[in-house]
Amino acid sequence: MDEQRVQAxxxxxxxxLDCASGEETAILSANPELVDAELVQVMxxxxxxxxxxxxxxxxxxxxxxxxxxxxxxxxxxxxxxEADRLFDQGIEQYQQSQFSQAFQSWQQSLDLYRQVGNRAxxxxxxxxxxxxxxxxxxxxxxxxxxxxxxxIALEMGxxxxxxxxxxxxxxxxxxxxEVGExxxxYQQHxAIAREVGDRAxxxxxxxxxxxxxxxxxxxxxxxxxxxxxxAIAREVGNRAxxxxxxxxxxIxxxNLGQFRxxxxxxxxxxAIAREVGNRAxxxxxxxxxxxxxxxxxxxxxxxxxYEQHxAIAREVGNRAxxxxxxxxxxIxxxxxxxxxxxxxxxxxxxxIAREVGYRGREGTxxxxxxxxxxxxxQVQExxxxYEQHxAIAREVAYRTxxxxxxxxxxxxxxxxxQVQExxxxYEQxxxxxxxxxxxx
Length: 440
Known about the structure:
By secondary structure, the chain is mainly α. It is 85% helix and 0% strand.
């Protein structure tokens, strides 16, 4: 709630405290626009503050009791308060990597917001659910939720909410590999964040633009955006955001082949994740360190980091993170020539991707299994996995993964001596590579 609204609640509460006994109902009737769940929330906050400071014990008790009376007299306020509680609970669960619980809390809050006709709350819940669907790989469903949230923000003239939702839509299209589309949403988010003075949102938009341009191969431009985002995260004291940007800078420098510099950024990200108690972020940083050491050819050291990532993902119940760690372990063991061990890890990662409905990760796992069988010389088996990878990439419109699958199919058919078929796959690969900027 904005500061002006809070001040209106405080003034009303002071009037209630100062009035003669029995006049409270008349005062509330004269201010119907302020009698809502947020008034109850402010009352309770002031009651807790008074109790903690050891002053105004009567006021603290009276405020707490009167807040309860307002709720009891108005069942809608009770539903509103429960919706707010569930929404906040979902945020706490999400931050603790309790993803399935967060999903349930936000769905329940959405149902209650709709029952009481709270459009602002409905929009917030839709936004968080959209992000949750994206995180579990159901990106098209995520987009549906986010577009509903965007409609509500536009309807209410909520520019800040509009900007946030546009950024989240950018993240969804980024997850699909539609980087150009994502950039358009990120740029709209950035413009609105600057318009309304949302520095934290501005920082997120800059960071997202950095990630997008990195994926387009414009790594120096990406670093420029990421460094601006890092400066803002530090300015507003967003330590978790600072860590995430440092991790993304590490990925950018890894793309430039500057692996030692990348490791330094990932170590900073890891230190911050541990400082703020972000176990999921800690796992992510460990996984990125593993990838950087793998790039240096230190496969055994990479495996140690992947194993730590895997342990944390299992500890916090992050099934998507667990699947990613298993996939990285599979690739590492394949690089060591231990292909059967690699297949074991990759199959576990594939099972998890299917369990959580993460179609993009499922496709990637199938592609990696194809690579493992290709390493064993079982090229026909590899082709079957590549074809499944290609089908899923096209289903979820993930152009980068589609290109990877086409390239692998080209290699497989070339190995089999079927040169014309290989050329057809290569031509399709290059057509996509030109679009997504991946001609490495």
